[in-house]
């Protein structure tokens, strides 16, 4: 039996940019011929700067974006060519944790009601209540907190509601779309540890999108690097950090904050110089495996 849960094949998502007269003047290649797999039970980290296409890729997998070309398979079933009913059943096993824990929650619903809502579609109210209370307790809520509204919670607590809401229906796959970027640094590690614990307990598979490389390194089994819509490197997390191959991956790693002030200033100066030079990937069309499961985009 295949260990692949998700397989993405040569997908493209382009956005036309029009001038004031409604004419297309250029096309933004948000996702440009990307292929990858996500294994059952793993966390695949997806990194890149703003505009790299990582969120568009994630949303395309969940069918929140319509792709222009390519195929997306979940458990060997196509999300592109399957019938409406088949797709609906497949998407029930896929959930998302959003970047902003406040805007993603209905402000007029209590914590309990927010987690209860998706359960009522599958279970009796008694059973749904039991499951909702159990998962809220698991993510760190006490019973007196169940009746509070989102505005009464901190950002970290709101994100815990979002996580509880995502995992309570027992999905196989969760897209974590920058789930810690809106949180205080002191809270980020707590949320990451919660995600790790839930993954072990529930057998979840994550696509973890972030620009925070230190957190990505901690949570990920493998890391995929995107640059201007292209996947430029993919490999085991430690390999990406210890033996980066693509020029863009090296640039990202140079941008990680350094504790030593002198080294930090030197690294910042070098990184600023590197950012002045755009990396040309137009002739990089060959996906090369340089070591087991470590791939890089190179020129033919």
From TrEMBL:
Protein name: ABC transporter ATP-binding protein
Matches recorded under Gene3D superfamilies: P-loop containing nucleotide triphosphate hydrolases
Xref: SUPFAM superfamilies: P-loop containing nucleoside triphosphate hydrolases (SSF52540)
Protein family membership: Belongs to the ABC transporter superfamily.
Keywords: ATP-binding, Nucleotide-binding, Peptide transport, Protein transport, Transport
InterPro entries: AAA+_ATPase, ABC_transp_ATP-bind, ABC_transporter-like_ATP-bd, ABC_transporter-like_CS, Oligopep_ABC_C, P-loop_NTPase
A molecular-function term among this protein's GO annotations: ATP hydrolysis activity
PROSITE patterns according to UniProt: ABC_TRANSPORTER_1, ABC_TRANSPORTER_2
Record keyword Methyltransferase present: no
Organism of origin: Vagococcus hydrophili
Pfam families hit by this protein: ABC_tran, oligo_HPY
One example of a Gene Ontology biological process annotation: protein transport
ABC transporter domain mapped to chain residues: 6-253
Family annotation (CDD domains): ABC_NikE_OppD_transporters (cd03257)
